Amino acid sequence: MARYLLHRLGLAWVVWVGITWVTFFVMRLAPGGLTAGATELSARVSAHEQRKKFMALYDLDKPWYVQYGRWLKRFSRLDFGRSFKDDRPVLEKIAERLPNTLLLNVLSLGLVLGLGVPLGVWAAVQKDSFLDRAVSIFVFVGFSTPSFWLALLGMTLFGVRWGWLPLSGLHALNAEELSFWGARLDTARHLVLPVFISAFTGLAGLSRFVRNGLLEVIRQDYIRTARAKGLSEFSVIGRHALRNTLIPVVTILGLSLPELIGGGFIFETLFAFPGMGRLGFEAIMARDFPVVMGVGTLAALLTLAGNFLADLAYALVDPRIRLAGKP
Amino acid sequence: MTGDTYVEASLGDPSRLNPLLASDSASGVVNGFLFNGLVKYDGNLLLVGDLAKSWEVRNKGLEILFHLRPDVRWHDGVPFTAEDVVFTYERLRDPRVLTPYGSDFALVQSVETLGPHEVRVRYKEPFAPALESWGMGMIPRHIFQGADFNTHPANRAPIGTGPYKLVQFKTDEKVVLVANPDYFEGRPKIDRVVIRVIPDSSVQFLELRNQSIDFMGLDPDQYKAYDSFFEHHNKFRYPSFSYTFLGFNLKRALFQDVRVRRALAMALDKREIIDGVLLGMGRSATGPFPPSSWAFDPSVPEVPFDPERSKALLAEAGWRDTDGDGVLDKKGQPFSFTVITNQGNKLREQTAVILQAHLARIGVRVEVRVLEWSSFIHDFVDKSAFDAIILGWNLGRDPDQYLIWHSSQQGEGRYNFVGYQRAQADALWEQGRRTFDLSQRQAIYRRLHRLLADDLPYVFLYYPESLPTVHKRFQNVKVGPAGLGWNFREWFVPKKYQRYRLAA
Questions:
Q1: Which of A54, A69, B312, B424 is most buried when burial is the number of CB atoms within 10 A of its CB?
Q2: Is the confidence metric ipTM above 0.90 for this complex?
C-alpha cells in the first residue's frame, strides 16, 4: 500500500514539472503578445512604445531558456511574480479569487451529490417506470442545455420579471454597510442563481451515472444472495448495492477537484463573478504570463492532487486494489 | 442639493489608477474622476483652464507659460504646485516609465518652474496640439518621488486633485469614489460614484432594466430594444470622435492603382452597411475628421455608390473576367484578397461580411479573417502583414493625425501601417501641427480632408454614434458637442428621488 502511494507520488511530481514546462511553451508559442488592456487604437497613444519598454523591463526580449530558468528559480522560492496588468503579486490575485470560486463550486457540487445520487437510485429502482423516463428526459435536457443560455433565462425570470434575486456580482453595492448576518444573507442571495444553474448540468450527468452503476450492481450474485437472506429491499439497495455503486463516483469526485478551483470563464463572465475562470482567461487574452503560469501551475497541482486522492480513496474503498500483490 | 450615488457599468476592470500608465478605457473612466490636467475641453470643445487658471502662448508657439491655480490641494491635503507639473513631465519622458503617452511630449525642449504657480514649457519647434496635450492628468511628486514609478502602491490607491477621491478598489468587482469636499471648483453634488465591473454587455443591459446601474454605453441593438427597458432611463445619441475604415495595404501591387481603390469604394453600398450594422445610427464618412470637428470639410463629396462605374474603372485598370468564372482577372491572376478585422467587435465583423457581398457583385473575391486582438495587433497590424483591414480610430479633439498619415510613421508598430506616402500630404500634416492660427489650420486640414478623399488610402466607411443611457433621476444632464458627462459635477438628484444613502 505504502509503496503504491509512493510510486504514485513520485510520478505526479514529474508530471507536474512537465505541465509547467508545457504551459510555458504553449504561451510563448501563441501568436500575439502583451496588450496593455487597450482593445482599440487611439491616434495619440503609442502602445507599441509602451510594449517595447515592457518587454525589456520584464526580460521578455530574452531567449526562452533564460526566461524559463528565471521563472523556475523564482518559483522554487514560491515567488510567482507580479501581474503585468496591474502589478499585483500573482499569489495575491489568486488568493482573492480562490475562495469565491471554491464557495460557488463546493456548494454546487454538494447540490449535485445531494440530489444526483438519490435521483439516480430512484430511477434505477423504478427502472422503466414513468418516473425513470421522466428523469431520463430531464437528464438529457439538462446535459444539452448551454449553461450561459440558462443563466440569462434565469436572470430574466428571477431577477428582472419577478425581482426575487440579484442578477450578477457577489455582493450588493452597500455590502460594507450591512450587519454580519445581513452581509451573509446578501451573499447567499447572490449565490442562488449561479449555484443552481451550474449544478444543473452536473446533476444530469451524475444521476445518470449512479442509475446505470446501480443497475449493473443489482444484477450481481451477492445482491441475489442478500435478497435470498431475506433482507429488506431498503437494506439491499442502501447497504449492499449503493456502496459498490459509489466506488466509481469517488473517481469522478477526484477528477472534479480541478473544476472546483478552475471555474468557468463564460459562467463567471455572465454573473460578473470574481472567480478563477475569469482571472485565467483574461490573463491569457492579455498575454499576462505570470498570472497564466500561476493559475496553470496551481490547476496542475490540484488536478494531480485530485488524482492522487482518488487513487487513495479507491484503494481504501476497494480491497481488490488495496490488497493487490499480496498473496 | 447633494446626495445619492451614481452607478456606472464597466466591461473591464481598471488596471492602474495612474493617468500616465493606463491605456485601457476602464482606467480612463476612473482616472477622469480622480485627476485633472492643466487644461480641459468644455462642453463646446473649447480648451479652458483646469489646474491652470490661464496661459500665454509666446514666441510663435515655441513657449507656453501656464499660470496655475494657487488654491488646489491634493487629496491628502498637500498643495499642488509647479513642481508637480515638472515631475509629471519628467515621468512622461523617463524611458523606464511604462507610459504610452510620451509621443505628445517628444517636441518639448524644457519644462521649468518660474515660481510656485508658474510653469514655462519650451518647444523645439512649434507644435499646435501642445496645449491639448497638457490635458494629461497631473500626478503628485510628493507621493512618487524616490520610489519606483511603475510599481508604486499609489497606482492602486491614487492621490489626485479631482472632484472625487478613491475609497475602495475591489478588483473585478467595483471601484468606489466619494465626493471631494475641498475640490477647487466646488464639491460635486453627487455624493458617491461606483464603477461596477460587469463584463457581459447583455447582463449590463438586464441590470440597467433593474435600475441596478445608472449608466451604460449601448450598442445599436440595445438602443432599439423595447421601450420597457428604458422606463427609468433616458437615451442619448451623438456622433462619437471616431471613424471606421477599410484600409488597403498600399505596398501590395493590387492596391497601388488609385482607380482600383476608387472602384472598390464605389462598389460599397454604405447606406446598407450603416442601416444593417449600425441600424442607421451613424453617418457615412468622407474623410479622417469627424463631422463635429472644425477640421471637417462638409463640401467634400461622398464616393457615389455605382457598381457599373466601378466595373468600368476596373476594366480600365486591366481587370476583366476573361475566363467567365465570375471573378475578375488580370494576367491570369484572379482579383482576390483577404480582409482582416479584430474579434470582439461585432460591428466590424458584420461590416466585413456585408462588404464581402458587395465586392462579390463586381467580381472581386474577398476572404474575411477575424483575429483575436493580441495576435491581430502584434502579428498583422504592427507588421503590416495584411491585404486590407477593417478597423477604427479613436481620435483626439485636435485634428492632428501626423502619426497616422505621415510617411515617416511607417515601420513596425507605427500607425501608418497602410504605407501611405505622398509628399503633398506630408507637407500639409507638418504645416498643420506648426500653425497656431485656427482659420489657417482649418484651411490646411480641409485640404487634407479632400486630398485623402481623392487618394483613398482608406475607404472611410462610417462615423459611429455614441449611445449612452442615464437614469432619469439625474438632473442637469447636458449633452454638448463634447458629448455627455463634461458637467458631471453639476448633476444632482432631487431629495425625493434619491435611491442610495451614504452611511454616516
A1: A54
A2: no
